[in-house]
Structures are given as structure tokens and as C-alpha cells.
Backbone:
DNA sequence: ATGGACAATGTTTTT
DNA sequence: CATTGTCCAT
């Protein structure tokens, strides 16, 4: 029964059985890191008599957590009961609910998603009389989120410019609003957990003693808050076992910092470091392409990936005339391989850089009458109809939730417009109560002392809505989430509202049916659990492994997954690597890692697809091949598709005429940016030109930015705008 | 208060 | 192009 150790290779065995103290496992793609993590947990329980209760394992997605749980269970059976296994966010949520006495909110707080966050920023801007045009809510939200990831509270927000001061004020107001409605955003879950452990060492000690063994998956994607949290939790015993791979770090924009891996080595000098290089997933042909790509990133510890699976089929590089032909190629190839019995539909995955790219692919699948599935929680939970119904549920659960109230109160339209809503809020503030509670009060009709304060029409509609709320709240504790949802749907006649006869309306109602299906699973666990899980789902969590049809997903969503046959599409400069990463070397390296992650998902076959033109923003425009393609020796590739391109590639060493023809806009030879001119940069904001010179057919501009200081940029890449 | 017509505007990745 | 915001008539 302990034979799980025998099935491991020597490095894996070493990782699983290494003694106590800090351990860093550097695990290449497909090297069996989940297997190591689960075997380690099983080993601790079976060989070292560690109680499952004393083990904490954290992952980044619920799917990964569930998979680990299943695997540990299959190794140990019921002996593994009592493990704490979850995502960073869900684990923190649990701790915060448990310890709410020490925190400035109560244990039934609601978790707000990124759309809600934008709404709150809007509210904060309005409260401070700031213009949304000048301070874009999404930008402000990004600053707030970045600050939270760095554990910076509003009062400590560093100020260098006037803009910083504004952000600080908005951030402060933002937090006030959240606390007033008893809500936390994603980042707060981590931030408050760290704060709790900092302010209350006895609480920290409690958890640190309880979790005597801490294991972490995807360690390269931790941010400062998560790293600090781990340090706090393990300060007591230093039993921290982390698994990661810097080459697969792709969440920098979300605050993740792969340098946490280096920090770990420094903070735990006694750490055992174990390298897993043997790959059990891909053929050598695929691994060679992967290494060729990633080796172009500087400052890497070289890692040699090898496999015993043999060479396999050569990686295909296909050039398509445009993005439509690209989609057609994908669908045709799949149909062909399936027809020839070489693969089953469920073997395929199609990966792309941006969600927008899925549309043409979906159309091609639809056109061919071929079923497919699309990974993406955002897409579902971001739908208006889904958010509406969730807002109703949140409001019923917590009438103080002004955000959900604002969302729900006039959907479907019931005559409560902006004016009435504003009066309601003012009135509530004057009586120092929440608008939701005022609404409950107004349900009593003209016996309510507040009745007089509204025009008769407004008072009537508000009373009706208040009465609905009272009615739903009466059933809050007796009805399971699904029944409560059905009650609401019926009372507001949501179906009639959505189904207007259009395809879109029907689709919206189908989304509601899907939401019902999800709610049905919470009959035992209740509404709070439903609302929490819904807030914390990851894209991967929506992936249904059982459906045996091709999968469409972003490269980001693909991390940690594997498929027999993979297509990576849209391999163009400005797509992958994405435009927004051109003037930042770190971002550019991350794009390369993203490509690497995609390549290493493939087990047997890999298709790299390059469209030469695309339909974008109403125009048909030429595209350049991704610069990453030229990192791959042509001996590793099988060329397919548009023939001239192959000739182009072969002739590329000699600067031929075609290059001139393919470049659409020739760079200006006269400097466009004069010293003293004001310019606008998409990321760095406003700045002043200090100097500019022509070099290599491009304009090199030195700019002093208000926010980030002196930068040197290439005009052709940086998308500068002259300010007038 | 509501819904339609038109203009502007923006285009990454997601717990 | 597709979404979102703004203005205007009902």
C-alpha cells in the first residue's frame, strides 16, 4: 500500500521523502509536480504520523485543489480526511470568517469581483468630486490592487506626484465604502489576513501551530502578500514545501513576482533544493521547440528537459492567409485527424493570447457543425443577467450591500430611476441607515415615518420593492439557494424580461438556467457558501474534463493542463508578444514564458499557426510573424500553408524587396517629437520630451514622465501621442 | 422614467 | 467592429 514511493523517479522520491524544514522543488513542465505534492502529503501522513488536520496545502485554482484532494484520497483513503486544501483566496476567506472578531468587518462579509471593484472606484470618485475622464476607474483600480498586493494601506500610500495623492484619497474612500457594505475585494482577502497575523500574534501563532506542514503549488506566481502570509504561517516551524518553475511565471501583471523563488532561497538558506527535469508529458520534438524558445530569455538557470517518450512527430508551423483561414485550418485539421482515426475530438486544445481571438474559432466550429467547449469563468460570471441575479441574492442576504441594491433595484425596470434612487440614498444617509434598511422600513407603507419624504409615485414603487425584499428575507433561512433563486426569478418575472424573442434573450435565459444548476449543488452548504464560491471561481474551474470535444482557451488558462494535440494560434507580433509589452523588457520576457507554457501543454502533436492578415476594428490589415518563431531552428519545424512565406523565411538573411513592401507604415525620418513637447504614453501617462534622435530607421525619444521619471523609448513601438 | 439613435472610444492575461 | 456613453423624444 506504500507502493506510491516506488513509482517515483529518484528526484521525485527525494523530494517526497526529504526531511523537515524548508524545501524548494524546481519542477519543469510535465515533471510530475502534482504527483510529488500529493505523494508528499501522503508520505507525511503515513510515514511520519502527521495528522491531516495539521497539513495545509495551497494552490491557485480550486480545480488544482480538488485534483490534489482526489489523488491523496486515492492513495490513503479515509485516513486523509481533515486536510486543509484550497486556494490562497478561499483559505484566507475561511480564516477571516473565523477570526472576524479581530477584524473591522463581520464574518458574513461578501466578496466582490473585479467588475464590482470598478463600480466602487466610480462611487469613490463621485464622492470625492473627481472626474472619471481624468482618472479612469480601471487605471485607479489597478493602482489600488497593486498597492494591496504590496501590503500598502491607504495611509501609507507613497506620494510623489499630485496624481499619487488623488489615488491615495480614492483608495482611502474605496476602503471606507467596502467596509460600510461589509465587503472585501479579492486582494483584501490576502491583505486582511496578513494584517490580522501582524496585529494579533496570538492568532498567527494559533494557525502557525496548527498548520505544522505547509505546501505550496505554483510558487512562482505568489505575490508579496502571499509570500508574507506564508512566512507568517511558517515562522514557528519553517516546514514549508514549495513547488514552482520560474519559466512558467505568467502573472506579473497581477502582482506575482517570480523573484519570490530567489527570495525564498535567501530567507531560508538551509532550504533543500531539488530539481525535477524529466518530462513525462511531451515528445522530445516538442520539448526541443520549448527549450529553443525559453533559452532566449536572459538570466535563466538553464534547465534541460528530457523525456523517454522518443522524438515523436515534428512540430508543424502553419502559415494561413488570414485569421479566418487560420480558424478553418484548425477545424479542418481536427476533422481530418478524427476522420482518419488518429485522434478523438477530446484530444484537442486551441490556445490563444486574448479572449477576443476565440470568436472566429467559435464561428468556424459552429459552421462545421462541430461541438467545442470554451474555458472562461469571467465570460459566464461577467454576463449581465448572471450578475443581476447574484446581486439579488446578495441583497437579500445583506440589505446593507448598497452596491447590489443599486444593481438590482431597477432590473427589470420598475419605475425606480436615477432620481428616486438618489432621493432614497440621501434620505437613508440623513437617517444614518443604509438604503437597503430604509427600503425594508418603507415596505410598511404610509405608516412608515419616512413615507412623507418621497413623492407619492416614488414612495409607491419603493414600497413595492421593499415588500418584495421583506418577503424574500422571510424565506432566507428556510429555503435552499436554488429555491430562493426560483422565488426571486418568479417574483420579478425575469424570464419574461429576458426572453424578448431574440436569440440573445434566449441565450441569456439559458445562462440563468446554468446558474440554477450551479445553485442546486448548494442545498446542504447554503447561500453563503454559494456566494463565496461563485466569487472565487477561476477560469479553469469551469473546465469540464468529461466532455470529449475540443477545448478553446487562453494561454493563461492553459497553465497546469495537458492535451494530446495542441494548436497555438495568432502567432504574430503585437498579438503574442502582445503590443502592451513591447516597451518593457520584463513584460516581453513574460510573453515568451507564456508561449513556453503553451508549447509544453502538448503531449503528442503541436501546431503553431501564423495568420498573415487579420480583420480588426473594421479593417483588413497585414500582420508580422511573431518574433518568437525565429527563435526556433527551422530544422525542428515542419512547414505548412502559404508557400511564399517559406521562401520569405529562407530569403530572410538577405534584406530583400519584400520586406519593404510588407511594412505598412515606414518610420518617419524626421523627428516627430521636439524637446519640450508634451506627450502621452499608454502606460506611463503624461511626460515631457527631453531629447530625440533618429537611429536605425526609428526615432529614439527621451522622456521625463510625471509618474515614473526618465524613460527612453522607440517611437515606432511606444505608441506615443503628442499633446496639443 | 424609458428606450432609441448616434457618437466616441478602446482593444491582455484573471484569483 | 463592438461596446459604452450621451443626447433626445416620447
Residues:
Amino acid at each position: 500500500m506504500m507502493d506510491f514511493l516506488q513509482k517515483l523517479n529518484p528526484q521525485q522520491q527525494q523530494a517526497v521523502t526529504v526531511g523537515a524544514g524548508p524545501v524548494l522543488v524546481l519542477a519543469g513542465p510535465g515533471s510530475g509536480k502534482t504527483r510529488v505534492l500529493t505523494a508528499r502529503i501522503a508520505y507525511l501522513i503515513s510515514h511520519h504520523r502527521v495528522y491531516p488536520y495539521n497539513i495545509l496545502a495551497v494552490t491557485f485554482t480550486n480545480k488544482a485543489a480538488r485534483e490534489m484532494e482526489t489523488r491523496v484520497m486515492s492513495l490513503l483513503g479515509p485516513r486523509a480526511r481533515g486536510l486543509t486544501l484550497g486556494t490562497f483566496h478561499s483559505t484566507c476567506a475561511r480564516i477571516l470568517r473565523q477570526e472576524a472578531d479581530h477584524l473591522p468587518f463581520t464574518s458574513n462579509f461578501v466578496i466582490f469581483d473585479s467588475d464590482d471593484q470598478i463600480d466602487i472606484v466610480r462611487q469613490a470618485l463621485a464622492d470625492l468630486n473627481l472626474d472619471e475622464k481624468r482618472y479612469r476607474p480601471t487605471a485607479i483600480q489597478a493602482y489600488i490592487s497593486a498597492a494591496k498586493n504590496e501590503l500598502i494601506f491607504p495611509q501609507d500610500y507613497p506620494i510623489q506626484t499630485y496624481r499619487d495623492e488623488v489615488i491615495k484619497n480614492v483608495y482611502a474612500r474605496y476602503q471606507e465604502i467596502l467596509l460600510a457594505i461589509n465587503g472585501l475585494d479579492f486582494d483584501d482577502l490576502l491583505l486582511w489576513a496578513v494584517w490580522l497575523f501582524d496585529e494579533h500574534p496570538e492568532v498567527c501563532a494559533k494557525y502557525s501551530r496548527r498548520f505544522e506542514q505547509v505546501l505550496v503549488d505554483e510558487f512562482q506566481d505568489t505575490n508579496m502578500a502571499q509570500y508574507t502570509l506564508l512566512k507568517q504561517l511558517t515562522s514557528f516551524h519553517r516546514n514549508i514545501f514549495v513547488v514552482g518553475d520560474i519559466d512558467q511565471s505568467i502573472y506579473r501583471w497581477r502582482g506575482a513576482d517570480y523573484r519570490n523563488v530567489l527570495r525564498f532561497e535567501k530567507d531560508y538558506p538551509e532550504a533543500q533544493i531539488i530539481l525535477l527535469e524529466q518530462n513525462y508529458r511531451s515528445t522530445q520534438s516538442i520539448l526541443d521547440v520549448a527549450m529553443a524558445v525559453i533559452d532566449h530569455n536572459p538570466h535563466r538557470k538553464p534547465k534541460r528537459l528530457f523525456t523517454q517518450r522518443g522524438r515523436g512527430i515534428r512540430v508543424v508551423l502553419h502559415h494561413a492567409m488570414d485569421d479566418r483561414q487560420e480558424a478553418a485550418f484548425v477545424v479542418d485539421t481536427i476533422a481530418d485527424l478524427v476522420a482518419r482515426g488518429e485522434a478523438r475530438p477530446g484530444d484537442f486544445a486551441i490556445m490563444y493570447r486574448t479572449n477576443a481571438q476565440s470568436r472566429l474559432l467559435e464561428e468556424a466550429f459552429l459552421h462545421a457543425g462541430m461541438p467545442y467547449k470554451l474555458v472562461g469563468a469571467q465570460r459566464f460570471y461577467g454576463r449581465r443577467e448572471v450578475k443581476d441575479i447574484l446581486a439579488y441574492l446578495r441583497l437579500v442576504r445583506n440589505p446593507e450591500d448598497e452596491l447590489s441594491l443599486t444593481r438590482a433595484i431597477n432590473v427589470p425596470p420598475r419605475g425606480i430611476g436615477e432620481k428616486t434612487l438618489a432621493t432614497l440614498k440621501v434620505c437613508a444617509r440623513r437617517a444614518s441607515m443604509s438604503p437597503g434598511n430604509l427600503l425594508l422600513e418603507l415596505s410598511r407603507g404610509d405608516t412608515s415615518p419616512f413615507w412623507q419624504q418621497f413623492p407619492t409615485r416614488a414612495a409607491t414603487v419603493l414600497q413595492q420593492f421593499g415588500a418584495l425584499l421583506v418577503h424574500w428575507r422571510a424565506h432566507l433561512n428556510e429555503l435552499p439557494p436554488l429555491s430562493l433563486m426560483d422565488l426571486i426569478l418568479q417574483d420579478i418575472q425575469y424570464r419574461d424580461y429576458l426572453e424578448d424573442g431574440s436569440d440573445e434573450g434566449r441565450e441569456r435565459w439559458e445562462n440563468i438556467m446554468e446558474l440554477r444548476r450551479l445553485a442546486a449543488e448548494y442545498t446542504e452548504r447554503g447561500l453563503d457558501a454559494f456566494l463565496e464560491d461563485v466569487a472565487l471561481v477561476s477560469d479553469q474551474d469551469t473546465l469540464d474534463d468529461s466532455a470529449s470535444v475540443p477545448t478553446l482557451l487562453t494561454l493563461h488558462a492553459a497553465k497546469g493542463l495537458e492535451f494530446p494535440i495542441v494548436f497555438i494560434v495568432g502567432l504574430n507580433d503585437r498579438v503574442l508578444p502582445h503590443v502592451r509589452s513591447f516597451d518593457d523588457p520584463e513584460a516581453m520576457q513574460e510573453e515568451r514564458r507564456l508561449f513556453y507554457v503553451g508549447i509544453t501543454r502538448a503531449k503528442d502533436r503541436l501546431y503553431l499557426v501564423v495568420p498573415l492578415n487579420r480583420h480588426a476594428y473594421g479593417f483588413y490589415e497585414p500582420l508580422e510573424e511573431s518574433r518568437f518563431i525565429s527563435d526556433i531552428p527551422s530544422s525542428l519545424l515542419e512547414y505548412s500553408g502559404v508557400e511564399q512565406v517559406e521562401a520569405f523565411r529562407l530569403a530572410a538573411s538577405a534584406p530583400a524587396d519584400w520586406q519593404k513592401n510588407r511594412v505598412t507604415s515606414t518610420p518617419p525620418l524626421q523627428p516627430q517629437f521636439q524637446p519640450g513637447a508634451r506627450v502621452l504614453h499608454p502606460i506611463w501617462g503624461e511626460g515631457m520630451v527631453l531629447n530625440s534622435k533618429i537611429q536605425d530607421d526609428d526615432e529614439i525619444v527621451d522622456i521625463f514622465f510625471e509618474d515614473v521619471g526618465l524613460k527612453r523609448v522607440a517611437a515606432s513601438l511606444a505608441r506615443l501621442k503628442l499633446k496639443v
Q: What stands out?
A: DSSP finds 29 helices and 24 strands in chain A. The CA atoms of residues 325 and 611 of chain A lie 8 Å apart.
